[in-house]
Amino acid sequence: KQEVTQIPAALSVPEGENLVLNCSFTDSAIYNLQWFRQDPGKGLTSLLLIQSSQREQTSGRLNASLDKSSGRSTLYIAASQPGDSATYLCAVTGSARQLTFGSGTQLTVLP
Amino acid sequence: EAGVTQSPTHLIKTRGQQATLRCSPISGHTSVYWYQQALGLGLQFLLWYDEGEERNRGNFPPRFSGRQFPNYSSELNVNALELEDSALYLCASSFQGGSAGNTIYFGEGSWLTVV
After folding, report:
1. Type and span of the H or E element at A53
2. Total Cβ atoms within 10 A of residue B87
């Protein structure tokens, strides 16, 4: 059974700092990995999708990497802003197109 | 272009009643997924529908059921509601569920409270 772990569970940084969120998964037989953002009480916003054959994806200040063999992904956020404060979730797509989510990292960027 | 839309936004039901939640996928998407986000339990996969057929279901009892209509919209039904069914129910959609490489887009969710 696939298990996804995210470290740290919570992170507080001052504005402008670069930061890294970590995600690990136990079964490397995945189709892809997605990073999502969730604001309190809201749905999920897709940030980046990395296919299993890719090593990284970039969108603006966000960069996500994937090392499928070691079961790890990182989300790098450059020059963090207070508007980046949210919970960040990673999820892997396994067999039968089922997404397995981590428990998330709650990020707070202090002005 | 409209995103994934869900209704109702909030729903309060009494234990033992039935709840029906609705989802409209992004135009052109044929796959619809349902997830439950209960407090402290994270996001749990419920159901996947593609082209009107149930393709996969998560580890939930049979009182959680649903369907997908010819226009690809979907309904989630929860029968014999229990207090622990209180959660945010999220619907998501994607192109061609048979292709695993597509981004999945989520709606804003429906809050179900069982009292």
Report:
1. none
2. 21
Q: Is A60 left (phi over 0), alpha (psi -120 to 50) or beta?
A: left
pLDDT score for B41: 81
Residue in A55, A53, A51, A78 with CA at minimum distance from that of residue A65? A55
A43/B108 CB distance under 8 A: yes
Helix (H, G, I), strand (E, B) or coil at B107: coil
Q: Is the pLDDT of residue B24 over 60?
A: yes
Note the pLDDT of residue B101: 67
Q: Please indicate whether, in this complex, the C-beta atoms of A46 and B101 are within 8 angstroms of each other.
A: no
pLDDT tens profile A1-24: 899 999 999 999 999 999 999 999
Residue A12 distance to chain B (closest CA, Å): 20
Cα Rg, chain B, nearest whole Å? 13
